[in-house]
């Protein structure tokens, strides 16, 4: 029984990782109606930036803020320079650019900062809590994820900018007519997604350790979590992320063994999606003919 | 999305235009003649490119013609490769006889995946297929399948010898054999896509409701497209396995699926011929990238990919088609 | 991209003619009066690109050799291609090296699946396939594959040594294994099976795997702890090894921990995981660790450091791949020196299989490179070591693996 409880808690801790990355995916989707496959690698890149600042002597939170700001700028620049000219290109060409970005970020992170595993500091202390069931960092990073969730929720729900951004993604033509600067909304969406990704990276790195492929495996789970919860809903994505973490642990420990835990987790997710195609919390989009 | 489908439709029409039998025959003859001018290693490269070209053609059928995105076709490629390897090594089946078997096996798997795909549009389908690509190597390693798949060690197979009456090296023979298989598959694809079924595909892609009103069974068309697409990719996997003479879970990681997808977008989504350009891209450009930078070959590869997307957003074939159309 | 070089030959007849023509020009492919070509495949891109450092180190090493005048009057032309750790690309690159670049031999090609894909081809071509960078047990089958020879102690032998130590030190242990679900991880399971024999099922109460794409191994550790494991054998790559060491401390769980020597770098594993958390870990090492204070004044490591400073400035010196690459490069150099003026493929292979107690600078004291025509396992020795919080403390004798 203690084993089961421990598996669930450990699943929630891992799920917190997926949830934080899933939020970045929701952000970019809400803003651009694309899913950026390079999101994870950009987050890894940002995390290395943060480590560089910390090694240069900046205090943790100063490095944190600088990294978030720089990542935001990086996101905006990528949108302006790379995505903007692709605005009228077929969707698949944009996906091609995403894959290109993924390769570039992954390879240059390795080339710049080496491939050796590196520790990343945590501001929350590392004492085991609850008799070893959860660490101080896991608790702190979950709190950060929830704060980001709240911010994203409030942003989209209660601010004019958030509304404008959703409008720009949902119907660019009409938005332009009512005075929304659609181009800048997209850039802003990229910036915010990159910033959230940077936060996720800095929260994840103390747990999984920092290496250039840190986000490779995580992105798939985060993607699954976001879709399970509903990619239009920040809350759904977070719940989805946590659920994937727990489902995966329980499947691996009690049902099929670790070799098949990913496969089974995916089957469960697909089954849920077949029943509820827009995810647990997502809005069903009805297309008009 | 509408701009996209328009572009795809335009490209598709380009493919539908009677390119003429003569140019096709000339291209084929030139390709066949290469057998006697290239070294064994170069023929091997081209043989792999042919295999990838057939796999990408499978993606063209699925994504280009029915609008269903798959990021997991590496899985079908792997299944085809394993069917051939197991049949050749365990049951001593001749290499050519394994192709129809892997075609059937992969078509069945494609059909099975096609059903959930009906309910999962766009992103959801992309995730599901991508998940399949990630999970398949683990399935191949599973202890229950190990007796067949050889587990992590994989299976080594013997290279087929040319028929005794032909004075060819195995590399030359395999290249010609693959070329012949590819030619047949490309012609079949062309006939399929230009006929009634191809029009049904496009109708389902561009206007599902209208298509349904016209009496097209959307579910059948979509799952059927999945099956045909998987069949093509499976045969490609078989050819790839025979050429490489080895299959192992590590040969079919997610990178393969991504490479096939890259081949699709580089070649051009809606054109049969684009598959060939895409295949040449994914075989040769990584080597060029590694020659430019050993520190980060993937960064160079990614940059080249982005540059191609900038210059030719509709892919090589799409852009060529448009240029030709403008001239005439 | 497709070179037109063989066009002329092709016009006469098939490619084979061109090839035999080339052979007639030079006594041995890849060897001229001033140069010897050595081929290599490496993962500079893709999931295993961390190992690209081995190839970079070897390229720098041969550059140093050339700067010092080469070997027997010849410069080494080291041609290293990227295969992205994908077997089909390995086949492509190895064929390019042998058929187009016409290298004299292949050296330190990376990976088990990748080398398996070309083993048969290389042996059919009778090209020396030397000192493969893989710890699989299968390299060294000199009867079936006389042209293929391994390099480092196999993972399986290493695991067997741990198994024997467990049997001797804690015969009533409840052993748990955490392994990566691939050839590397499974070799440790097999090695423990070799060591425990019939008792494997009673000794090992739980074996769980993880995938290299898994974000964490927390769940696996919880499973092992719940099962009541008190001796843990971890066969994990550095990132996951660091996670395990840290998580064990977080869980306040203290099993006797045996850790694969793939992941014992002080700088890249123990420091990130916490030096204190690692106290008590046992491993079997054969190579010196640059971050271990014990080797600060070691002549071999000084030689390596001088090389790094001059030929690989700016490179992360905590990366164990550079130390490994240096040892491999030195072994290759030794073979070429032994060859003298006869650089035929047959003689290269003969010398590679007749190395008598050669000691590369970066191997642990007592560990030697030794081969014979019936022993294709160049490094067979290792010594158990325990982490004491400051450095790896060797204990017991240098143990010789079976090497069969």
Automatic annotation (TrEMBL), chain A:
<feature type="transmembrane region" description="Helical">
    <location>
        <begin position="52"/>
        <end position="78"/>
    </location>
</feature>
<feature type="transmembrane region" description="Helical">
    <location>
        <begin position="12"/>
        <end position="32"/>
    </location>
</feature>
<feature type="transmembrane region" description="Helical">
    <location>
        <begin position="133"/>
        <end position="156"/>
    </location>
</feature>
<dbReference type="GO" id="GO:0006865">
    <property type="term" value="P:amino acid transport"/>
</dbReference>
<feature type="transmembrane region" description="Helical">
    <location>
        <begin position="192"/>
        <end position="211"/>
    </location>
</feature>
<dbReference type="Pfam" id="PF02653">
    <property type="entry name" value="BPD_transp_2"/>
</dbReference>
<dbReference type="GO" id="GO:0005886">
    <property type="term" value="C:plasma membrane"/>
</dbReference>
<protein>
    <submittedName>
        <fullName>ABC transporter integral membrane protein</fullName>
    </submittedName>
</protein>
<keyword id="KW-0472">Membrane</keyword>
<keyword id="KW-0812">Transmembrane</keyword>
<comment type="similarity">
    <text>Belongs to the binding-protein-dependent transport system permease family. LivHM subfamily.</text>
</comment>
<keyword id="KW-0813">Transport</keyword>
<feature type="transmembrane region" description="Helical">
    <location>
        <begin position="90"/>
        <end position="113"/>
    </location>
</feature>
<feature type="transmembrane region" description="Helical">
    <location>
        <begin position="253"/>
        <end position="275"/>
    </location>
</feature>
<feature type="transmembrane region" description="Helical">
    <location>
        <begin position="218"/>
        <end position="247"/>
    </location>
</feature>
UniProtKB/TrEMBL annotation, chain B:
<protein>
    <submittedName>
        <fullName>Innermembrane translocator</fullName>
    </submittedName>
</protein>
<dbReference type="InterPro" id="IPR001851">
    <property type="entry name" value="ABC_transp_permease"/>
</dbReference>
<feature type="transmembrane region" description="Helical">
    <location>
        <begin position="49"/>
        <end position="67"/>
    </location>
</feature>
<feature type="transmembrane region" description="Helical">
    <location>
        <begin position="173"/>
        <end position="193"/>
    </location>
</feature>
<keyword id="KW-1003">Cell membrane</keyword>
<keyword id="KW-0812">Transmembrane</keyword>
<dbReference type="GO" id="GO:0015658">
    <property type="term" value="F:branched-chain amino acid transmembrane transporter activity"/>
</dbReference>
<keyword id="KW-1133">Transmembrane helix</keyword>
<feature type="transmembrane region" description="Helical">
    <location>
        <begin position="122"/>
        <end position="140"/>
    </location>
</feature>
<dbReference type="InterPro" id="IPR043428">
    <property type="entry name" value="LivM-like"/>
</dbReference>
<feature type="transmembrane region" description="Helical">
    <location>
        <begin position="254"/>
        <end position="287"/>
    </location>
</feature>
<dbReference type="Pfam" id="PF02653">
    <property type="entry name" value="BPD_transp_2"/>
</dbReference>
<feature type="transmembrane region" description="Helical">
    <location>
        <begin position="299"/>
        <end position="325"/>
    </location>
</feature>
<feature type="transmembrane region" description="Helical">
    <location>
        <begin position="97"/>
        <end position="115"/>
    </location>
</feature>
<feature type="transmembrane region" description="Helical">
    <location>
        <begin position="74"/>
        <end position="91"/>
    </location>
</feature>
TrEMBL record, chain C:
<feature type="domain" description="Leucine-binding protein">
    <location>
        <begin position="35"/>
        <end position="388"/>
    </location>
</feature>
<dbReference type="InterPro" id="IPR028082">
    <property type="entry name" value="Peripla_BP_I"/>
</dbReference>
<keyword id="KW-0732">Signal</keyword>
<dbReference type="Pfam" id="PF13458">
    <property type="entry name" value="Peripla_BP_6"/>
</dbReference>
<dbReference type="InterPro" id="IPR028081">
    <property type="entry name" value="Leu-bd"/>
</dbReference>
<comment type="similarity">
    <text>Belongs to the leucine-binding protein family.</text>
</comment>
<feature type="signal peptide">
    <location>
        <begin position="1"/>
        <end position="26"/>
    </location>
</feature>
<protein>
    <submittedName>
        <fullName>ABC transporter branched-chain amino acid permease</fullName>
    </submittedName>
</protein>
